[in-house]
Amino acid sequence: MMVGLSIRMRQFQPAFFAILLLSSSLFAQKATVPLPAPSGFNLFSVQQEIEVGRQNAAKVNQQYPVLPESNAISRYVQRLGESLAEQLPQPTYPFQFHVIAEKDVNAFALPGGPVYVNLGTIQACANEAQLAGVMAHEISHVYMRHSTKQASKEEVAQVPLGIVGAMLGGSMGGALANLGLQMTAGSVFLKYSRDAESQADHVGAQIMYDAGYDPYQLALFFAKLDEEGGSRGSSFFSDHPNPGNRSQAIRTEIQQFPQKQFVIDTPEFDRIHQLAMGERTYTAQEIKNGQFSREPGNQDSEGGQTHPPLTRNPAPTNSDSQTFNHSAYSVRYPEGWRVLGDPQSSVTIAPPNGITNNAVATGAIINNFELQSSNGGLEASMQQLIASLRQSNPALRTMGNDQDITVNGVHGKSQDLIGQSPLTGSNGQAQRERDWLVALPSQDGLVYVIFIAPDQDFMNLRPTFQQMLRSLHLK
Fold first, then answer.
1. Paired strand residues for 437
2. Structural domain contains residue 2
3. DSSP line for 432-449
4. What is the pLDDT of residue 16?
5. pLDDT tens-digit profile of 215-257?
6. Is residue 114 part of a domain?
7. Which residues are CB-neighbours of 414 under 8 A, at least 6 positions away?
8. Domain limits at 217?
9. Phi-psi group of 112: left, alpha or beta (phi > 0 → left; psi -120 to 50 → alpha; rest → beta)
């Protein structure tokens, strides 16, 4: 977790300023407290710090079950995080806020702005102010540059003193970038010292205060975790060592702030908290073993994970989509995309630049699959299909277990996959490809759709793919 804050000086017109002075209650509501400026030895420039965070965020998004940006919980956390980050002196870091479907009560922040909050943390918070406190603590780690300062100390400790001058002269960009790549979740560089934790507590309380949240709720949350002693599955204190008398130190800090009315809870938090309680979460060991779905969905009545039924939104009917009628189905697709195939064959639907070297780099493939055996039900049929796809693409591998899905009343299976893209990077090596396979039973076996995109582009295209799937009607 990382950051601190400085007070913004608001510019008031003279007449408006006079009104504020006449209204002590209104003035109290606007009260803010100044934040300390980041200081201390650091080999990283701010731009390097941002780049390190960007690179490591890409790794976290691949290795952890991060909720989609379109998820209601994700959108709420983004809005809450932005309201807290707005309290920082400008210009500030390009913060991004994400939710991980992990059971443990924990959160972490990468250098330069990416902040991750576990679903277990949202489930454990009693109100919005407590969640805001955890996030403000993380923002404080970023703002105070705790991670890169720690990395700088580690680097200097391994380098002869005579070379430090060259490092400070700007020749260490490549080495720093390589060092930064180690700053993923659980890294030694995200396990802070007690001094850094104490500073993040204080700065986080100041951010909460400036944003209008009761800082006392942060103290209450830490006290609750401390009392439970890990019984809730909290790994927070393993990454954020208690500097000692943590709750009391925060209480003492906020007693010095001017009094004002605070936000503690909101109806929006209650709604999101209820959604979070219904989400599927994974243990740290399951995540380490890759036993999770990349696209967490809602839980069914038995606690198993399913994707939301794709019948809630009607098929697109506006002018920016077109319809393709196949003998086995109909589907709508974005205007400007091309259909390769005919109503009796396998079909590829792709944007103009989606086909590379006679292979699909971005787009969708829709086809029929004849089953070798109907024994074992839909689960076995899905495995037959995946085995067949691997014959033509040996690099294809599954990500987590297949999931139940319902498309316009037809129950099927959904599976996330990773493969090798026909696109190559600047180094000439093939890029990673992300695939989303959906299979639905038909009279002749299965009708299946594979949505395909380069790994780094898939999340941006996911809403388009979901809209196409919602429009799919079997005949």
1. 415, 450
2. no
3. EEEEEEEEEEETTEEEEE
4. 33
5. 989 988 888 777 765 444 455 655 565 666 777 778 787 788 8
6. yes
7. 307, 402, 403, 404, 405, 436, 437, 438, 439
8. 14-276
9. left
- Number of Cα atoms under 13 Å in the Cβ half of residue 319: 0
Q: Assess whether 341 and 259 both reside in one domain.
A: no
The predicted model scores a pTM of 0.54
CA–CA separation, 444 and 429 (whole Å)? 39
**Who's near 25: CB < 8 A, 6+ residues apart?**
none
Maximum Cα interatomic distance, the chain, rounded to a whole number of Å: 83
**What whole-number distance in Å separates Cα of residue 25 and Cα of residue 20?**
9
In this structure, are 253 and 341 located in the same domain? no
Instruction: Give the sheet arrangement for strand 473-474, strand by strand.
Output: 321-325, 329-334, 473-474
- List Cβ neighbours of 296 (8 Å cut-off, separation of 6 or more): 65, 67, 71, 101, 279, 280, 305
410 is a domain residue: yes
- Kindly give the pairing relationship between strand 114-118 and strand 96-100: parallel
CATH number at residue 461: 3.40.1000.10
Identify whether residues 239 and 126 lie together within a single domain.
Answer: yes
Backbone angles phi, psi at 234, to 5 degrees: -85, 130
Task: Please report, as a single letter, which amino acid is at residue 167.
Answer: M
Q: Round to whole Å and give the CA distance between 296 and 118.
A: 13
Please name which of 251, 268, 269 lies closest in space to residue 214, comparing C-alpha atoms: 251
